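Exam revision sheet. Question 4 asks you to relate a sequence to its structure. Input first:
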Amino acid sequence: MTREQIEAFQRTHANHLGRALRVDGVLGPLTEWALDYETIAHERQAIVFSAQTYIDFLENPRGSNDDPQGIIRRWLERCGAKPRDPWCAAFVSHCLSVGLHPKVPIAIAGAQRLGKFLRATTDPWPGDVMWYPTQGDRGHCGIVLGVSATEVMTIEGNHDHGVRCVRRPRPGLFFASSVQDTVGTCPGVVPSVPLPHGSTR
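Answer key, C-alpha cells:
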C-alpha cells in the first residue's frame, strides 16, 4: 500500500479498542490489525464490535460486581445468575448473542460451562471464546481479539473490576469456536496491550 492508501484507510477505520486510527500513513501494528480485521467473517466482526463498545466500562463501586446503571445486573439476570455474581461469562454471553443474533442466543453464566458449551478449537480467531479454569468449577473467559503463536489478545469482562483489553500467554488457555467461518487473515496481537498482572512477556 502507498502512504496515501494507508492514510485513506486510517481515516475510516478503527483499532483493536474500537477507536479511530491515527492518520499518519504508517503501516504499524494498529493499522495492520484493522486491515486484517476487515477480512474476517462478518459475524466475527459483530462479536468483536459488541465487546469493544464496553472497553473501560467499570464496576462501581470497585469490587461490587455491580454498577449504578444496572448493566452487569442485566447481563447476570439474562444468564440466570444472582446479582453480584462473577460476570465474565455473562459479559461474553451478551457479546456472542449480539454478534450472532438471532441465530444463537447464548446465556451461560459460568466460564467453564460457556467454554465447554461451544466447539473446542486449538486455532482461535477473533470472536471466539478464550477460557481457563480457576478453582473447582470456576473459571474466567473473554472474547478473542488477536492471536499470535505464543499469545492471545482478548476483551474480558470482570478483569480488574471492568472490561479490559489484555494479552495472555497461550499455555493453560482453552478456546472455543463461536463461528464456523475462518475466512480472511487472522488479526495479530497488538504489542502495546498490557499483559495481566503476574504474566510475563
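Marking note for examiners. The longest strand covers residues 139-147.
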